[in-house]
Design brief:
The chain is mostly helical. Helices cover about 65% and strands about 0% of the residues. The chain contains 6 helices and no strands. Helix 2 packs antiparallel against helix 3. The chain starts with 12 loop residues before the first helix and ends in a 10-residue tail after the last helix.
């Protein structure tokens, strides 16, 4: 069984890039968002769900799933603390709860739904060939 650190360093690129993007956004006083009610919580839920998916894919098994959830939840807490130093921003327990809920759902889906996990782990080029096997065949016309 692999732990979170067992894949190549290249595998950490996307989760690290997303954490940098989150940190940059948290450090801004104003963030452009649609005028939808409570869009903020949905954005937290979705972004941290994506982050958790990227992190849980780095390992295998229950230990990796729990570790991914813990790491992403703690990062959400640190992100809220980071916002406390940004003028015009505030710390909200509800934001951290949305972060953790998004991470929990993402990790649960990845760990408990083999078809979903297989879909995420299938290389893009292979998906196209499997979904449309005759697409790359030469035409007889």
């Amino acid at each position: 069984m692999r732990s979170l650190g067992s894949k190549s360093n290249r595998s950490w690129f996307w989760p690290l890039l997303l954490t940098v993007a989150i940190s940059v956004a948290s450090g801004r006083s104003k963030i452009a968002t649609p005028g939808l009610f409570q869009f903020d919580k949905a954005a937290h839920f979705l972004v941290f769900g994506l982050l958790a998916t990227l992190v849980v894919r780095l390992g295998e098994g229950r230990r990796a799933a729990w570790l991914a959830l813990l790491v992403v939840s703690l990062y959400g807490m640190a992100d809220e603390w980071h916002q406390s130093f940004t003028p015009g921003r505030s710390v909200e327990l509800a934001d951290w709860m949305a972060d953790t809920a998004g991470a929990a759902l993402a990790v649960m889906l990845y760990a408990c739904w083999p078809r979903y996990r297989a879909q995420l782990e299938t290389p893009l080029g292979r998906k196209a060939r499997v979904e449309n096997p005759g697409a790359n065949a030469p035409s007889s016309v």
